[in-house]
């Protein structure tokens, strides 16, 4: 009985030891499987990380290339901007200069316009004074007109001279005296005395031709205005036009009569206008 009991005890001990070993084995196996699973998971995660890292590296490279391109573009834009700013400065400077020139031109134009207006007013005033002074003479004797800013007093040879003569008649001297009163009040005018003839030729001991006659008649009028009536010689210029500036048809007696004339042309001095223009 004692032996049997020992045998049973041994069996119980072995059975108990086997259960413990199997349990440990299962625990160890589960641990190994879990470790393998974790390893696979980590390997997969590592692969995923490597793929993601490759993608990030590729993206980073692309971004670096894009950044380099942007820097080049920015440098190019800056250069263009600096160039454009330089051109803009030049354009602004040119524009400012042109605006100054325009302002100067406008001032000059305004000055010229003021002087022209003053000249026109002066011409009209002198014209009226001449008309008033010569009111007592008929249209057959003289005419007064304004043309291109000048006053023309055309005196016929009936008023001034006998036929073929350069000696001024009494009636002509009266007209010249009236005109001299106006001229003596106008020191800033120029006076041109022009002699004119018709086309009928003349050849005498005194006059070689119509040129001679027209010139000497003009100087005769100048002498009377300056020596007899005190008009300044600095204002007067005599000239002869002969037959070459007719105002009427030389084929008729009336036309020839109109062409035989002495024109006294009164023009305000243009010194101020010339100064501005120069």
UniProtKB/TrEMBL annotation:
<dbReference type="Pfam" id="PF00691">
    <property type="entry name" value="OmpA"/>
</dbReference>
<dbReference type="InterPro" id="IPR036737">
    <property type="entry name" value="OmpA-like_sf"/>
</dbReference>
<keyword id="KW-0472">Membrane</keyword>
<dbReference type="InterPro" id="IPR006665">
    <property type="entry name" value="OmpA-like"/>
</dbReference>
<feature type="domain" description="OmpA-like">
    <location>
        <begin position="148"/>
        <end position="270"/>
    </location>
</feature>
<keyword id="KW-0175">Coiled coil</keyword>
<feature type="coiled-coil region">
    <location>
        <begin position="39"/>
        <end position="129"/>
    </location>
</feature>
<dbReference type="InterPro" id="IPR050330">
    <property type="entry name" value="Bact_OuterMem_StrucFunc"/>
</dbReference>
<protein>
    <submittedName>
        <fullName>OmpA family protein</fullName>
    </submittedName>
</protein>
């Amino acid at each position: 009985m004692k032996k049997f009991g020992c045998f049973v005890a041994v069996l119980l001990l072995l059975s108990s030891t086997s259960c413990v070993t199997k349990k440990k084995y299962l625990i160890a196996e589960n641990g190994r499987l879990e470790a393998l699973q974790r390893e696979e998971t980590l390997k997969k995660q590592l692969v995923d990380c490597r793929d993601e890292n490759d993608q990030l590296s590729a993206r980073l490279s692309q971004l670096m290339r894009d950044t380099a391109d942007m820097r080049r573009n920015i440098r190019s834009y800056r250069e263009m901007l600096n160039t454009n700013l330089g051109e803009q400065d030049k354009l602004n400077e040119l524009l400012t200069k042109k605006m100054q020139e325009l302002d100067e031109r406008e001032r000059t134009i305004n000055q010229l316009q003021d002087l022209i207006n003053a000249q026109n007013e002066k011409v009209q005033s002198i014209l009226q004074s001449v008309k008033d002074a010569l009111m007592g003479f008929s249209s057959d004797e003289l005419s007064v007109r304004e043309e291109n800013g000048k006053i023309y007093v055309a005196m016929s040879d009936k008023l001034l001279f006998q036929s073929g003569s350069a000696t001024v008649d009494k009636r002509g001297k009266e007209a010249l005296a009236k005109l001299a009163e106006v001229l003596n009040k106008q020191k800033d005018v120029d006076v041109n005395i022009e002699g004119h003839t018709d086309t009928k030729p003349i050849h005498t001991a005194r006059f070689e031709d119509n040129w001679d006659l027209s010139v000497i008649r003009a100087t005769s009028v100048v002498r009377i205005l300056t020596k007899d009536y005190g008009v300044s010689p600095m204002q007067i210029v005599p000239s002869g036009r002969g037959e070459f500036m007719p105002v009427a048809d030389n084929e008729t007696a009336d036309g020839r009569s109109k062409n035989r004339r002495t024109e006294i042309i009164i023009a305000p001095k243009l010194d101020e206008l010339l100064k501005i223009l120069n």
